[in-house]
Amino acid sequence: MKPLIVNIKRNSLDDGPGIRTVIFFKGCPLSCVWCQNPEAKSPLQEISFDKENCVNCKKCLEVCSNNAINFSYKYRIKRNKCDLCGKCINVCQNDALKFAGKSYNIEELHEKILQDKPFFDNSGGGVTFSGGEPTFHIEYLNKLLKSIKKDNIHVCLETCGHYNRENFNNLILPYLDLIYFDLKIFDPDKHKKYCKVSNERIFQNFEELINNDKVEILPRIPLIPKVTATKDNLWSLANYLKEKNINKIGLLPYNPLWISKSETIGKKTEYKRSNWLNQKEKKFIKEIFSGFEFRDF
Hints:
By secondary structure, this protein is α/β, with parallel strands linked by helices. The protein has helices at 59-63, 87-91, 106-114, 117-123, 138-149, 165-171, 188-195, 200-212, 231-243, 258-264, 279-288; strands spanning 4-12, 20-25, 47-49, 97-99, 102-103, 126-130, 154-159, 178-182, 216-223, 250-253. The protein is 32% helix and 17% strand. Helix 9 (231-243) links the parallel strand 9 (216-223) and strand 10 (250-253). The longest helix has 13 residues, at 200-212. The mean pLDDT is 96.
């Protein structure tokens, strides 16, 4: 089955060098409570509802044969009744209802990426695979990478690091130019609490990558207040990276806009910080990583 793509973001300047096209895959082995792309967590198709676009025409209500539409319900769709037939999407006047993900065959996605090659060539950019987790669809990604590498396109992979190492090394690694590797929480128990899986495989995969020197790697740390952006966790990660002789990192500031995205797919959130990092939080984070090279935030 072809994976679902939840977004194709063009003209990005934040996901690798130069101007980039970012492909967001749907599906991830982690389930972080602060996930910035909650619509990309599940690999399965979902319907999203954007209440800001709804004009209350109620045509969706008229065509739903399963009584899954309820205008008094906060999330509009009763997910346990919805069979994803798409009738409500077809009659929606203002794109308030739409599928959260679309499948592409390899040729289709390759062609969409190629449309931006002039921008890649002029800026030193390329394509970035993100998600979700791209390695969740490793065989499809392998075929796509083989295809686009024929056109000499720079490839960056954004990964949570929770992948099968043998498959990754054989099918993915030979085609990568840059890896953005996320290290979220150092303590194994806390990682399992907030990300729902152990971090053992993630750190093993990270250490194997930095030791083989085959591709450029940038470890990145999401700065989630009271979860990852605690003094204990950041000091632990900073000391770990120093021990590995790493001096360049990526720091990803918390973005509260994801909360509304979660609501569009009918998901309740365990973490609800609604404001950005404040100056006091930024100061202690920068002090901890003062010996590292990172982009200011």
